[in-house]
Amino acid sequence: KAIIIDDEKHVREGLMLLAEWDRFGIEEVFEAKDGEEAKEIILKHRPEIIFTDMNMPKIDGINLLKWLHASEIDSKTIVVSGYDDFQYMRNAITYGSFDYILKPIEPDILNETLDRAIKEWKKQGLKRESTIENTRVINEVKPLYWDHVFTKLLTNKSIPSDASMKIQKEFGINLTEVEYTFSLLSISSTIS
Predict the structure, then answer these.
(1) Those residues with Cβ within 8 angstroms of residue 54's Cβ, 6 or more apart along the chain or in another chain
(2) Are 21 and 3 in contact (CB under 8 A)?
(3) Backbone angles phi, psi at 99, to 5 degrees
(4) 123-to-59, 62, 76, 164 alpha-carbon distances in Å
(5) Which of 26-30, 74-78, 84-88, 150-154 is least confident?
(6) Is there a contact between 99 and 78 (Cβ–Cβ < 8 Å)?
(7) Could you give the CA distance from residue 171 to residue 177 in angstroms, rounded to a whole number?
(8) What is residue 96's predicted lDDT score, i.e. its pLDDT?
(9) pLDDT for 98-121, tens place per residue?
(10) Contacts 24+ apart (CB under 8 A), 113-118
(11) pLDDT of 153 over the 80 cut
(12) Average pLDDT value for the chain
């Protein structure tokens, strides 16, 4: 999905015509005339590619970029502006814009930028999936790990300092400051 945010209708129409959406597998392209309208669409549809102008009424491009950055919305933002202005470019970089294209828009530059943005999005998507899988595996193994740590504590006369630190970090219990007793309970359930 993509969204084009610009207060000038002819610019939105131009981007719709010039970008090779089908080639890049973009099936839905939304339009917004300002940042305020764009925020609603972005929250509802979560487009991966965002084209935005900088100089717009209500919420301008800079404030939209700030909002996107603070919201941690996963997307690639491409600024399309008629202003070759250092302050605009600086803000675009500060708030994580992928690229900055000047109007009038050249089709080759537009499609090359779109191609790079989509490749970067997919590359980061693989990292996101890997992180999710790693978290799932860690969460599955964690109970086994703690079972092992606590079982070892039952057989030791003293608590190793590394185990004490790990318990404090995970459970917020400082074993050097409290009296403790360990017990092992075996709980089995029967299905009737």
Answers:
(1) 60, 61, 62, 79, 81, 83, 85, 88, 91, 92
(2) no
(3) -160, 170
(4) 31, 26, 12, 40
(5) 150-154
(6) yes
(7) 14
(8) 85
(9) 999 998 999 999 999 999 999 998
(10) 113/78, 114/19, 114/20, 114/24, 114/49, 114/78, 115/24, 117/49, 117/76, 117/78, 118/24, 118/25, 118/26, 118/48, 118/49, 118/76
(11) no
(12) 85
Q: How many of the other CB atoms lie within 10 Å of CB of 147? A: 11
Residue owning tokens 């502006």: 81
| Parallel, antiparallel or unpaired: strands 49-52 and 2-5 | parallel
Single-letter amino acid code for the residue at 139:
N
Question: What's the predicted TM-score (pTM) here?
Answer: 0.66
Helices 107-155 and 9-18, axial angle in degrees (round to 10): 80
Give the per-residue pLDDT at 160.
73
Strands (DSSP E) found in 38-165: 49-52, 76-81, 99-102
- How far is residue 92's CA from residue 78's CA, in Å, rounded to a whole number? 9
How many whole angstroms from its chain centre is CA 43?
Answer: 13
